[in-house]
């Protein structure tokens, strides 16, 4: 509870600083939402030509798009400290974190809070709600809970990717660009049904980088497409928890990296 209250205090300070220039903040929100609208507009153009994709309609893909968009935007908002961690290493600021009476993971996590990502969250949520209104989904308390768990798990998954990128800075100083393939590229890939990809690609993003587990498989359950997908029902039910496991593994990787960190002065 002490750590939570301290984190909320840090968030409050970050929000206050970002709200100092309110017009700039509002324009930022609008820009973030507009960019995301263009992304979905391109998907809509694709479906205007082909009508469906591997048995998925526009609004079923819109459901996928909304889920993955919310997860990524929330992860960016909360885990921004890891995304820009290379600055701490380059400037030697991480050294000061090592002598503070708080864990380094917690300090980096609380270092940044990007409120303007609310624009992306709002746009992705709007697409998800519109898609839901266009689809005949029989909602129940269990499905709502499953959706919430999937969204939190997806957020943890993307934060885990940011942690991997930050940890690599202990050896490379600069964050490795390949992580963007799995973060921004992951949002793009997760916006489409995984059945359109080759088998090796599906297996890699299921068992190594569990992107499919936090978006595609949960959508199969929520849209009642499990039977036609050929995926084991039990696997679909357990899939969302892969995001929590993935974050746990990346936290261990972070601890291992911290133990092998050498100051920029060495």
Record the SSE blueprint.
Layout: H1 2-18, H2 22-50, H3 58-78, H4 80-83, H5 86-90, H6 94-98, H7 104-109, H8 118-134, H9 141-172, H10 179-182, H11 184-190, H12 199-208, H13 211-214, H14 216-222, H15 226-229, H16 233-238, H17 242-259
What does this structure look like?
This protein is mainly α and about 270 residues long. The chain is globular and about 55 Å long. Helix 3 packs antiparallel against helix 11. It has helices spanning about 1-20, 20-50, 60-80, 80-85, 85-90, 95-100, 105-110, 120-135, 140-170, 180, 185-190, 200-210, 210-215, 215-220, 225-230, 235-240, 240-260. It has 17 helices and no strands.
Order of helices and strands: HHHHHHHHHHHHHHHHH
Query: What's the number of helices?
Result: 17
The percentage of residues in β strands lies in under 5%
Shape: globular
Number of domains: 1
Quickly give the structural class: mainly alpha
The main sheet comes to: none
Tell how many strands the DSSP assignment holds. 0
Span from first to last CA?
37 Å
Helix proportion: over 70%
- Overall pLDDT level: 88
Radius of gyration: 19 Å
Which ranges are low-confidence, i.e. pLDDT below 50, for 5 or more consecutive residues?
none
Characteristics of this structure?
266 residues, mainly alpha, globular
In short:
This protein has helices spanning 2-18, 22-50, 58-78, 80-83, 86-90, 94-98, 104-109, 118-134, 141-172, 179-182, 184-190, 199-208, 211-214, 216-222, 226-229, 233-238, 242-259.
């Amino acid at each position: 509870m002490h750590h939570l209250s301290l984190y909320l205090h840090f968030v409050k300070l970050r929000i206050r600083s970002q709200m100092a220039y309110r017009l700039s903040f509002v324009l930022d929100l609008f820009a973030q939402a507009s960019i995301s609208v263009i992304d979905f507009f391109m998907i809509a153009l694709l479906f205007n030509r082909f009508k469906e994709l591997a048995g998925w309609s526009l609004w079923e893909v819109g459901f996928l798009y909304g889920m993955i968009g919310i997860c990524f935007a929330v992860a960016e908002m909360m885990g921004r400290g890891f995304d820009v961690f290379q600055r701490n290493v380059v400037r030697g600021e991480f050294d000061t974190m090592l002598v503070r009476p708080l864990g380094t993971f917690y300090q980096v996590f609380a270092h940044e809070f990007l409120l303007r990502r609310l624009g992306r969250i709002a746009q992705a949520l709007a697409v998800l709600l519109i898609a839901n209104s266009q689809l005949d989904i029989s909602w129940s308390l269990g499905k709502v809970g499953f959706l919430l768990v999937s969204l939190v798990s997806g957020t943890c998954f993307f934060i885990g990717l940011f942690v991997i990128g930050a940890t690599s800075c202990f050896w490379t100083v600069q964050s490795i660009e390949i992580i963007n393939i799995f973060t921004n590229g992951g949002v793009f890939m997760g916006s489409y049904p995984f059945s359109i990809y080759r088998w090796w690609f599906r297996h890699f993003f299921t068992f190594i980088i569990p992107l499919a587990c936090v978006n595609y498989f949960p959508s199969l359950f929520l849209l009642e497409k499990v039977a036609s997908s050929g995926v084991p029902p039990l696997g679909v039910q357990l899939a969302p928890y892969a995001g929590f496991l993935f974050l746990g593994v990346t936290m261990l990787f972070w601890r291992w990296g911290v133990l092998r960190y050498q100051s920029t002065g060495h």
